């Protein structure tokens, strides 16, 4: 069973920071500083009681931190390496979209390395559109970011989207 639970900050900050380091170990420049997590609405992802990933949101801002009322920025979509390739990313993305809908956001924005084909394809599966390329966004190693967004009013839930994930309370 897949479940999501809000991270208890600051109590679980060290554990969240350690998980982020495991998920994004190959891209050390992409890691958040521990104090960055205090600004986000972050959630653990559990499968059968085990932490398998996390998700984090920054409400009412665009990917570049420009204020954008009604928009939620997905700042992190992460699955531990040993759990990848099992459909958990799809379940997490489905849950992220439901998180945004339940809280009344009209737009979801997210960004990723241009080379991250898996997350780009996953976002496209759920209706995200390519919005722009942000040159030099990532520093270690250097790479452009692809910014994608989903206008929720124009995109009903994806056909066959997973329904086993517990939805966040509004």
Describe this structure in words.
This protein has a single domain, classed as Aminopeptidase (3-Layer(aba) Sandwich). The chain is globular. The longest helix is centred in the middle third of the chain and has 15 residues, at 88-102. It is built from 3 helices and 7 strands, in the order βαβββαβαββ. Mean pLDDT is 91; it is low at 161-170. It has 170 residues and is an alpha+beta fold. The protein has a 7-stranded mixed β-sheet, with helices on both faces.
Instruction: Give the structural class.
Output: alpha+beta
Taking pLDDT < 50 over at least 5 consecutive residues as the criterion, the unreliable ranges are 161-170
Examine the coordinates and then state which fold CATH places here, giving the name of the CATH topology. Answer: Aminopeptidase
The CATH architecture designation is 3-Layer(aba) Sandwich
Question: How many strands, what sense, and barrel or not for the largest sheet?
Answer: 7 strands, mixed
Helix content: 10-25%
Q: What is the element string, with H for helices and E for strands?
A: EHEEEHEHEE
Q: What's the pLDDT, averaged over the residues? A: 91
Strand order of the largest sheet: 1-2-3-4-5-7-6
SS elements, strand count: 7
- Give the CATH class: Alpha Beta
CATH superfamily (homologous) name: Gcn5-related N-acetyltransferase (GNAT)
Given the C-alpha coordinates, what overall shape results? globular
> What is the straight-line distance between the termini?
21 Å
Oligomer class? single chain
Count of domains: 1
How many helices does DSSP assign? 3
Radius of gyration: 15 Å
């Amino acid at each position: 069973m897949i479940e999501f639970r809000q991270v208890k900050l600051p109590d679980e900050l060290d554990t969240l920071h350690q998980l982020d380091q495991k998920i994004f170990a190959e891209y050390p420049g992409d890691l958040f500083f521990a104090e960055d997590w205090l600004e986000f609405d972050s959630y653990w992802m559990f499968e059968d009681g085990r932490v398998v990933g996390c998700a984090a949101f920054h409400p009412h801002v665009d990917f570049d931190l420009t204020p954008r009322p009604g928009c939620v920025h997905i700042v992190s979509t992460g699955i531990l390496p040993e759990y990848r390739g099992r459909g958990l990313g799809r379940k997490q993305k489905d849950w992220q979209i439901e998180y945004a809908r339940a809280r009344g956001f009209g737009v979801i924005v997210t960004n990723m390395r241009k080379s991250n084909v898996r997350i780009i394809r996953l976002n496209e599966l759920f209706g995200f559109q390519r919005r722009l390329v942000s040159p030099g966004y990532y520093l270690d190693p250097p790479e452009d970011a692809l910014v994608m967004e989903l206008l929720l009013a124009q995109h009903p839930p994806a056909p066959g989207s997973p329904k086993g994930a517990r939805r966040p309370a509004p």
